[in-house]
Amino acid sequence: MPAGLTRNFPAGKALLRRLEPPHADEMAALHERAISPAWPTQDMIEHCRRDFCIGTGEPLTAFAIFRLGADQAEILTVVTDPEHRQKGLARQILYQTEPRLAGVGIEIIFLEVAEDNNPAIALYHSLGYEPFGRRPAYYRRPEGRIAALTFRKKLDAGATSR
Fold first, then answer.
1. Nearest 5°: phi and psi at 11?
2. Residue 104 class from Cβ within 10 Å (0-12 exposed, 13-18 middle, 19+ buried)?
3. pTM, to two decimals
4. At residue 92, does pLDDT exceed 70?
5. How far is CA 127 from CA 34, 95, 159, in A?
6. DSSP state, 151?
7. For residue 7, what pLDDT is reported?
């Protein structure tokens, strides 16, 4: 993991903290409360080992997982406890993490979001993410499949702290 991503950092009123394998149970439990299908603890352990996992709250109220590769990052998931939605936690995580990623050479971030996830789509638009594609029948749901919208954001290498 790049050195600029290894320490905790303040994020407005809350502290963002790097999530490690010991946090995997808490991450999996939060993911299960917020998203279906949930990712199990073992998957969270593996993400903590190989990806950049960042969260806020004690106990954990929101987190994001970024996969880093060369000059790119992909947001694998952004999770907010349903009891803490609409408080700006996901916005805070992304807004505070983007300059850190730029500071370690990440130039662009990609993500996918279900086309019916209007709150997330609005968040990504408000943070400057641009839609660039659609993947039909990407997500499996109990009622059938739904498309994913793909977004990207070019990072400003000069904005390495917020």
1. -140, 85
2. middle
3. 0.89
4. yes
5. 22, 8, 14
6. E
7. 56
